[in-house]
Amino acid sequence: MRRLGAGVLVAFLLVPLLPLLLWAVAGDFRYPAVMPAFSDRGLRLLGEPAVRSAVGTSLLIALTVAVLATLIGAAAGRAIGLYAFPGRRGVQLLLLAPVIVPTLAVTLGIQVYFIRYGLADSVAGVVLVQLIPTVPYVSLVMAASFAGLDVDIEDAGRVLGAGPVRRLVHVTLPAVAPGLAVAALFAFLISWSEYILTLLIGGGTVRTLPLLLFALIGSADLTAAAALSLVIAAPPVLLVGLTARFLTGASPAVVGFGRL
Amino acid sequence: MALGVATRPSRLPRGLRVALLLAPALTVVVVLFGGGFVQAVAQSIGYQPFLPARGPSLDAYRTVWADPAVRASVGITLRVATVSTLAAAVLGVAAALFVRSLCRTRRAFAALLQVTLPLPHAVAALAMILLLSQSGALSRAVSTLGWVDAPVDFPVLTQDAFGWGIIASYVWKEAPFVAVVVLAALSSGVAELEDAARALGASAWQRLRHVLVPVLAPALGAASVLVFAFTLGSYEVPFLLGRPFPATLPVVAYQQFRDPDLAARPLAMAIAVLTTLLVGACAVAYLALSDRLRR
Fold it and tell me: According to the lineage, what is the superkingdom (chain B) (predicted)?
């Protein structure tokens, strides 16, 4: 019985990945063949300039979004986690709204302004629009992280004569480092996977990996699409694998998985 | 959540410090997110930025209300979100309870649950196309058994009228998400509580009713609301795995937005506002319900 349950769970999680792996290395793979004639065409396509430039664009945007969202969100998280101030509950709800409400729906309304202020069709505009889903998320994760920070340690540092920079580097950062790492990781992943906001603001001229993937799926070149999927899927799976020990489901960080 | 609020001597007054810390994040949320919503509402009643003003009108909403195509879209959107959320909740709880019952292999399975979580939805959608389409892996596997002769004999599971392909893609991604959240709630000292209940003579049913369910419910509820909101408002999967008509609301909103005829713009915005209100109403209903249940 238990063995059956384990088998069903493993099959449910991993079987859908098999066709993806087979198609990525498929040459001739016509119905009703279950196994393809192997070919390296899909993997060779990954060396194409279009793919390489998409990897570069995706990395640039995702890293920039991760850094900006982490800085902005960590500041807000510190305020919410450490200080009692009037309207604190309201600020929390306000930051929760973009986690619930579909981002596409509200972004349609401001696309005109991106065009007007010269931000459309540019990397800067895409970075800016991707702050909408990432900043609230990082703020909430960091608020929980700072709520667990013992402010007495910071004060002890102050009393012992450490300046603001030394307190930050030696006291505060080590205390919130796990939360910070996870928040930055998810901001990166949300940006890395984002398609529709990039299309809407980047207008198709900012070509990230998801845009390329949609184009390949549309062109019905399943081998190329499957091979590119592996390139898109590898970094997230590796990064989450590396940070798994910080990702206990109890932390608000896992909410990020619901947004990917 | 206790707040470690210290009275800290500092050069900046506290109010100013809080304001400065919050300013960048609130700017993003209020200007981009709030501004986006206000703009969507304004443009849905006929306001057009940078163009000569016209009187406000509710024509777009009247059109949306009277359009059978939009009604079909509301139907498929709610159906896909509801079925996906229910299936992800049931399967997620089952997987969490199963993993919790393991001993030696528990850790390995808990890690395995996290394999599909970081995959982008577009990749999940492609995996489902390759698995479930009429010429996909499942159809080929069944044909080796001699059950179908050609792709046409295999049931239509992608780009289908019901939305099975969209649902499959969501459930594959979101059931592990629910499982991870529920598993975390279950691992916080519940076993000890259950042992105590057993020692005090509680039956299996009583243990479920008074120990497991109260621990599970908040985590499951929160995860389900997130899944529901996401599946209702997301674009990628329905675009790849659904039909162009009737499409889900976010897909229709984007279709209308791309229409070169500017007259379609208020329609696009009305549908965007409608989607936002649907998600908001469901989230508020959940909060009200969970408050009432807690009392």
Answer: Bacteria
C-alpha distance across the termini of chain B, in Å: 19
Going by the DSSP 8-state scheme, the letter that residue B34 receives in this structure is I
Q: Is B46 left (phi over 0), alpha (psi -120 to 50) or beta?
A: left
Distance CA B269, CA B40 (A): 5
Closest Cβ–Cβ partner in A12, A111, A116 for B50: A116
- pLDDT one-digit tens code per residue, A137-168: 999 999 988 988 877 888 888 888 888 888 88
Name residues 176-235 of chain A within 8 A of B (Cβ). 189, 192-193, 195-196, 200, 210, 213-214, 217, 222, 225-226, 229, 232-233
Instruction: Report the C-alpha gap between B207 and B226 in whole angstroms.
Output: 28
Partnered with residue A38 across adjacent β-strands are: A26
Tell me the residues of chain B between 71 and 110 that have a Cβ less than 8 Å away from chain A: 91, 95, 98-99, 101-102, 105, 109
Q: Under DSSP, is residue B156 helix (H, G, I), strand (E, B) or coil?
A: coil
> What average pLDDT score do residues B199-215 get?
86
B159 closest CA partner among B244, B71, B264:
B244
- Nearest to B250, CA basis, from B78, B126, B86: B78
Question: Chain A residue closest to B36 (CA)?
Answer: A106
Q: What is the pLDDT of residues B231-246, one digit of tens each?
A: 999 999 999 999 988 9
B161 reaches A (C-beta below 8 A): no
| Confidence band of A250 (pLDDT split at 50, 70, 90) | low
